[in-house]
Fold this protein.
Amino acid sequence: MSTDQGKNGDQMVSPNGVAGQPERRYAQIVGWGCHVPEKVITNKDLEQIVDTNDEWIRSRTGIEQRHVAADPKETTASLAIKAARKALETADVYPRHVDLIICATSSPEHTFPSTASIVQDALGAVNAGAFDLSAACSGFVYGLALARGLILAGDAEYVLVIGSETLSRIVDWTDRNTCILFGDGAGALLVAASNVPGGIQATVLGSDGSGADALTLPAGGSAMPASLETVSNGSHYIKMDGKAVFRFAVRVMADATRQVLEKAGLTVADVDLVIPHQANKRIIQNSILRQLKIPEEKVFINLQKYGNTSTASIPLALCEAIEAGKVKPGQNIVFVGFGAGLSWAAAAIQWSVPVEKREYGWWRSYQRRATYQAAAARSMWKRALRRVYSQVLPTPDQDEWPEASPAKEKEGSD
């Protein structure tokens, strides 16, 4: 049988054993990490702030506490950086190998530059592109869908997908309808190209913009620029029609799960674990448990500890599910979420990598610390160079550019 040779002289064989055809690519989740702020606000704490009580919050949402970024140095980027480093360490991949960083967030560091670019600089991912993704609480699964597409197309080998939020900075702490719900945190997954079957098998993305006003942050954009009026009337805080969002979420969570399973060639009976967006326990109960008849032990819930962390909720839950021994190779797992837009997203995953925590020697840990120290030094050096260039080497105006000599003009005309 004749064979073709790859770039390095390696024989190219497809999964079916047909020589001359490149191996099929799969998008595998190979690294995971999460981080939350230390400060915890319990339901009892909220009783001192707004007209509510612990029993009321628990019975309607399932939430018992939430982590908030109380330290001004804790930002969406700083949380994302810590989660990203843990994901890279889990995968034993160095930042220079990452091709793209996607940061899904509803509370970015700035309107621009992107939070992802700040993360890229801090990691020292010198070969990576970076951008933010805005799809509210659905954003993390949107990011996974993009990562899968790029990897299957051969345009990337490693894509780092991050969900990071500091929603406490855009919550009205006098509004009991919203302040009880949200928390801060970050989670990251490293998606890698692989020839091992499995990984992200299918995704479903959806949007219904007619419900845009049901969950929104009104001010700060081009429709309502920041002003004294928008600040004084609280238009820079999250506004939500809770009943409308609840009805939408209960319907779309079940529908999106069915659709993604169908695309992956699976049935509800094939599902080993569902990790839903951790917004409200009653939404999960009324959609995943009651409509799909998936047993409670196959649905992972940790919102009681973190509240709704938006884009971070699914990767945070996955990290905890792995630590709890709920995730094993060969399992069929579904991620499903919903959010502002209105939007929704789901992903069907065949887990195909070991989950046991690997121990690395002191040398490996030293290398990683040195990598991040070098990244910080590189960033400082580049910033210093830009300041020097701007002062010592100002860019001349076009009027100051030297004109061509008559001789050269004649030569050019010839």
Q: What stands out?
A: The chain has one domain: 26-213+233-350. The CA atoms of residues 72 and 169 lie 10 Å apart. Residues 1-17, 408-414 have pLDDT under 50 and may be disordered.
